[in-house]
Write a structure and sequence with these properties.
Low-confidence stretches: none
Distance between the termini: 10 Å
Number of helices: 7
Strand content: 25-35%
Helix content: 25-40%
Largest sheet: 3 strands, antiparallel
Strand order of the largest sheet: 1-2-3
Shape: elongated
Number of strands: 10
Length: 213
C-alpha cells in the first residue's frame, strides 16, 4: 500500500520510494527496491550490497547521502574492505566537536578547557522497547571543580565532574567525522551526485514518476 513519506520536514508526498544502487562509472543500475513512501532510507542496504556484489563488480567505494550515515551501514562497507563516502549526520552523531575531541589510542575525550576523561563505564538503556548500548566517560574531578565554565557545562547538577555519555559507536564515528572533513573526502563525495540524473531518467522516460495498479 502507498504511504505518506517526507522529502523534508515540511514537504510530504503520498506514494512509494524506489531505492537505487548504481555504479559511479557509467551509471549502471546494480539493484533496485521499491517500498511505501514511509520507508526509511538505508533499511534495505544489505540487500543492495549483496545484489551489487552478485553482479561480479569489485566494490572499492560506497557513496550515499546523510540518511546512510549509520553504524551498521558503515560497518557493512568496512567488512567488504571498501571505503565509505557518506557525510556525517547530526542526528546519528551528536558530539559537539568545538567542545570535545577524542584520542583513539588512549580512549579518552578532551574538553575545550583542557580536561580529560579518566574512566569509562559501559551500560545499557531501554528506550522505546529498544536497548541502547552506551559509554559513560567521566572527566577528572578537580579540574571540573575549578573550571571557569563549570556552570555552563554542568549547570545546577550536584556532580563534581562532568560525565560525557555517548553511544558505543561514537568513538569510531569521531574518527570517521575527522576523515569526512578532508579535501580528499569532499572531492570524492561529489561522485554521489551522479545518482540524480539517473533518478530523472527513470521518472521522465521509464514511468517511475507514477505507480499504476
Amino acid at each position: 500500500d502507498a504511504r505518506v513519506g517526507y522529502k523534508s520536514k515540511t514537504q510530504s508526498f503520498y506514494g512509494y520510494k524506489a531505492e537505487i544502487c548504481q555504479t559511479t562509472d557509467g551509471s549502471l543500475i546494480t539493484s533496485v527496491t521499491v517500498e511505501p513512501g514511509s520507508y526509511v532510507d538505508g533499511s534495505n542496504f544489505k540487500d543492495h550490497l549483496d545484489m551489487t556484489l552478485q553482479s561480479g563488480l569489485k566494490l572499492t567505494s560506497v557513496y550515499g547521502d546523510k540518511a546512510y550515515f549509520r553504524a551498521d551501514i558503515l560497518n557493512m562497507i568496512k567488512e567488504k574492505e571498501a571505503l565509505s563516502y557518506i557525510p556525517v549526520s547530526a542526528s546519528a552523531y551528536k558530539i559537539d566537536e568545538e567542545l570535545f575531541s577524542y584520542n583513539k589510542d588512549s580512549d579518552q575525550w578532551f574538553c575545550v578547557m583542557g580536561n580529560e576523561t579518566v574512566k569509562v563505564k559501559f551500560r545499557t538503556q531501554k528506550q522505546n522497547s529498544k536497548v541502547r548500548k552506551l559509554l559513560d566517560y567521566s572527566f577528572e574531578r578537580e579540574h571540573c571543580r575549578n573550571c571557569p565554565r563549570r556552570a555552563e557545562c554542568i549547570g545546577k547538577s550536584k556532580r563534581i565532574a562532568r560525565t560525557l555519555t555517548v553511544s558505543v559507536n561514537t568513538p569510531e564515528l569521531y574518527e570517521y567525522s575527522q576523515r569526512a572533513k578532508t579535501p580528499e573526502f569532499l572531492e570524492e563525495y561529489r561522485k554521489r551526485a551522479k545518482i540524480e540524473p539517473k533518478n530523472a531518467e527513470l521518472k521522465r522516460f521509464h514511468g517511475l514518476n507514477r505507480a499504476k495498479g
